[in-house]
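User: Let's play a game. I give you a shape written as C-alpha cells, and you guess the letters that built it. Ready? Here's round one.
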C-alpha cells in the first residue's frame, strides 16, 4: 500500500511533464529532479518516474524521427522544383519556373508534418493527464508506445 504522500508525489511527477509548455526542456528537468529526490521513499514514485521519463524520451525520439524525415524531403522538393541560373558577374542566382503548381508537393508535406506533430502533442497531453489520474488512484501507469530506456 502506498502512502498519500507517495501517491501525491507520483501524481506530481506525471504532471511535471506538462512544464514543457512553460519552460524549455521542463518535461525532462522537473521529472528528473522530483524522481531523483523521492525515488527511495516509494515504489510508486520510482515506477512513475521511470515511466514519465521513458515516455518523454520516446516522444522526443518520435518527434526527432518525424523531423529527420520531413526536413530532407522538404529541401528536396524545394530544390527539385527550382532551376537556378548563376549570373556570371557574381554569386547571385535567379529563381526561374517557380509557380504554384510546383509547390503543391511542398505544401502537402508541410501539412502532413504539422498534422503529425500536432497529433503527437495532443496524444502526449491526453496521456499525461490520464497517467496522472491513474497514479492519483494509486495505480502504476505505463504509457503506451513508450520505449523502456530506464528499467
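Assistant: Ready! My guess for every position:
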Amino acid at each position: 500500500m502506498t502512502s498519500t504522500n507517495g501517491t501525491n508525489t507520483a501524481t506530481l511527477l506525471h504532471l511535471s511533464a506538462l512544464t514543457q509548455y512553460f519552460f524549455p526542456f521542463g518535461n525532462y528537468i522537473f521529472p528528473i529532479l522530483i524522481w531523483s529526490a523521492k525515488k527511495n521513499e516509494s515504489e510508486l514514485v520510482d515506477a512513475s518516474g521511470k515511466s514519465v521519463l521513458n515516455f518523454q524520451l520516446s516522444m522526443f525520439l518520435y518527434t526527432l524521427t518525424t523531423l529527420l524525415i520531413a526536413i530532407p524531403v522538404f529541401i528536396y522538393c524545394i530544390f527539385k522544383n527550382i532551376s537556378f541560373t548563376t549570373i556570371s558577374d557574381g554569386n547571385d542566382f535567379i529563381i526561374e519556373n517557380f509557380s504554384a503548381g510546383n509547390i503543391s508537393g511542398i505544401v502537402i508535406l508541410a501539412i502532413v508534418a504539422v498534422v503529425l506533430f500536432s497529433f503527437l502533442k495532443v496524444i502526449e497531453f491526453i496521456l499525461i493527464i490520464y497517467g496522472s489520474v491513474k497514479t492519483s488512484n494509486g495505480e502504476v501507469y505505463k504509457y503506451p508506445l513508450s520505449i523502456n530506456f530506464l528499467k
